[in-house]
Specification:
Blueprint (H helix, E strand, L loop, with lengths): L7 E14 L2 E14 L3 E5 L6 H8 L7 E6 L2 E2 L5 H11 E4 L11 H11 L5 H11 L15 H13 L5 E5 L7 H18 L2 E5 L3 H6 L2 E6 L2 E7 L4 E2 L2
Parallel strand pairs: 3-8, 3-9, 6-7, 7-8
Antiparallel strand pairs: 1-2, 1-4, 4-5, 9-10, 10-11
The structure holds adenosine-5'-triphosphate and magnesium ion.
């Protein structure tokens, strides 16, 4: 392994997230600590409501911690304002949301082109067409999200997250709405990106087989990190 690939691309220190609700303060995540090396693939697993999506949003700088911090490629997210976090996300991060978050007024092609255009890439359209082909959607380029099935919307969201070959790809249940054929297609694309480009993969999944393909599995229970499992050796390190 090269020195570069040994670097911690994500470091999570004492990460805690609380929100105010009508019933009082609710702690969603409590004192989470772990790090991820560049090029690693990590699955985040746990029951519904355990805090997985909240954790992913914090890791990607889409949400801010109540205490503790996330260092993304060496930068403290706590120290940055929203504009600076947006810049880091645009430069380094791809994100597949659990609820897709496609722009309803744009076609599949335009949704995938959008981040490429925002990044000022000249070949945005070509890149978007190629990515949509890869996820098996070349016949749906001009469909709006409301004209796409759930699994098709998920694949558009995945194609969009691949734009610009991000250093870190976060995906929240990327194969949840897919049949086994398309699920495998997406898994292969994710691991291809991981292996060919060295993209760090952080996946939330309920799929044990997908989790087992990742280098490590982080288990969250009731907002706490309860176990980190190394996939191949099945060794408990926490
Ligand atoms: N803004 C918020 N205000 C109040 N409660 C919230 C907020 N965001 C999340 N929660 C609560 O925090 C808990 C964790 O939510 P989160 O979406 O992270 O769970 P999850 O592990 O991703 O679940 P799932 O597997 O169902 O997607 C849930 O009980 C949720 O209701
Ligand atoms: Mg979730």
């Amino acid at each position: 392994m090269s020195v570069l690939s040994q670097l911690n691309i994500i470091q999570v220190k004492g990460l805690t997230k609380s929100v105010s609700t009508f019933e009082g303060d609710l702690t969603i995540l409590s004192d989470i600590n772990f790090s991820v090396k560049s090029g690693e693939s990590v699955a985040i697993v746990g029951a519904s409501g355990s805090g997985k999506s909240t954790l992913l949003s914090l890791l990607a700088g889409l949400d801010v911690a109540s205490s503790g911090d996330v260092y993304l490629d060496g930068e403290s997210l706590k120290a940055l304002d929203e504009e600076a976090r947006a810049r880091i996300r645009a430069e380094k991060v791809g994100f597949v949301f659990q609820s897709f978050m496609l722009v309803q007024s744009l076609t599949a092609l335009e949704n995938v082109m959008l981040p490429a255009e925002l990044a000022g890439e000249k070949n945005a359209k070509q890149q978007a067409i190629e990515l949509l082909e890869k996820v098996g959607l070349s016949h749906r380029l001009s469909h709006y999200p409301s004209q796409l099935s759930g699994g098709e919307q998920q694949r558009v969201a995945i194609a969009r997250a691949f734009v610009g070959t991000p250093k870190i790809l976060f995906a929240d249940e990327p194969s949840a709405n897919l049949d086994s054929k398309n699920g495998h297609l997406i898994e292969n694309l994710l691991f291809e990106l991981n292996q060919a480009q060295g993209t760090t993969l952080i996946l939330v999944t309920h799929d044990e087989q997908l989790a087992a393909k990742c280098d490590r599995t982080i288990h969250i229970d009731g907002g706490k990190l309860v176990e980190i499992k190394v996939s191949k050796e099945m060794t408990n390190v926490v």
